[in-house]
Write a structure and sequence with these properties.
Number of domains: 2
Number of strands: 15
Helix content: 10-25%
Order of helices and strands: HEEEEEEHHEHEHEEHEHEEEE
Structural class: alpha/beta
CATH topology of the largest domain: Rossmann fold
Largest sheet: 7 strands, mixed
Number of helices: 7
Bound molecules: S-adenosyl-L-homocysteine
CATH architecture of the largest domain: 3-Layer(aba) Sandwich
Strand order of the largest sheet: 9-8-7-10-11-15-12
Radius of gyration: 22 Å
CATH class of the largest domain: Alpha Beta
Strand content: 25-35%
Distance between the termini: 40 Å
Length: 276
């Protein structure tokens, strides 16, 4: 099967230009547009219609590779003022919370909008993300990050403290990335559809300890606590070995589901996730 349209850069596409020193530029391929770099100017009209993966050159003859960006590239490129969520954690969150096309998803706080971008990407044009934040400057930055990627239409940014609750009900999923989620579990419950997906990320075990009994007391079940360890390798085929350093800790991920019936019959605690 050949995919002629998908194989070449089209007008309006988001593209990634990579220099030999691995400097990455993200550009939207508008006709007549250009990218100015210290290695010369790259004209977008020269890129539109070119095959993805090809080498292109600036007017000074410097080489760039033309690629379609992946979500991971876009996330690491997010302009940030806060700690952002890392792709390793975001990937697992998207899968475990079933984030997919057409869904209504709530998150708080917006921060720099890294998770917001991933949620918006995954819910697609038919879905929607509602993102709460208390700091105006953070919301502004997130708005810019979303606009750069043309994802703004899928997201409503609200400048509201979630202490006062969420405006929405029956959301498919609610995710919290803020220091004290244990203070907002009743609000989360009111916004989530019965049996929906709740998740959050916390940097310390103390915060997790505070959260777990509150989840239990609010009738959340099927609780899972985990962390994601990611080790990169130096991709040298003669001397394949791990990189010397790794990011050892970002945060603990906690997932749980709100139940409608009382938990007088408790589901068994999942203490061993390895199926036999
Ligand atoms: N997930 C984000 C980072 C979030 S940083 C990303 O990937 O980029 C945490 C944010 O939560 C901060 O910007 C903070 O201002 C916001 N926040 C803290 N308490 C809040 C509350 N009660 N309601 C809404 N936002 C809150």
């Amino acid at each position: 099967m050949s995919l002629p349209d998908a194989a070449v850069a089209q007008e309006g596409d988001l593209a990634q230009l990579v220099s030999p020193s691995n400097k990455i530029y993200f550009v939207r391929l508008e006709p007549g547009g250009e990218l100015q770099t210290h290695r010369g100017v790259v004209r977008f009209d020269d890129l539109i219609g070119r095959s993805w993966g090809s080498q292109v050159s600036s007017h000074q003859g410097s080489i760039f590779w033309l690629l379609q960006p992946g979500l991971g590239d876009l996330l690491m490129e997010t302009k940030r003022n806060t700690q952002i969520m890392y792709p390793k954690d975001i990937g697992y969150v998207l899968i475990m919370m079933g984030i997919g096309p057409g869904q209504q998803v709530i998150e708080a706080g917006t921060g720099s909008g890294a998770l917001t971008i991933a949620l918006a990407w995954n819910v697609g044009p038919a879905g929607h993300v509602i993102s709460y934040e208390i700091r105006e400057e953070m919301q502004k930055l997130a708005r810019k990050n979303l606009q750069r990627l043309d994802l703004s239409e899928r997201v409503t940014l609200k400048l509201q403290d979630i202490r006062d609750g969420f405006d929405e009900t029956n959301a498919d999923a609610v995710f919290l990335d803020l220091p004290n989620p244990h203070g907002y579990i009743a609000q989360v419950r009111a916004a989530l559809k019965p049996g929906g997906f709740f998740g959050c990320i916390l940097p310390t075990t103390n915060q997790v300890e505070r959260l777990l009994p509150v989840l239990h007391n609010n009738n959340f079940a099927f609780t899972e606590v985990c962390e994601i360890l990611l080790r990169h390798y130096k991709p040298n085929y003669d001397r394949l070995r791990p990189t010397d350093r790794m990011i050892a800790h970002t945060g603990y991920l906690i997932f749980a589901r709100p139940m409608v019936s009382d938990l007088d019959v408790q589901p068994a605690l999942v203490e061993d996730n390895i199926s036999e």
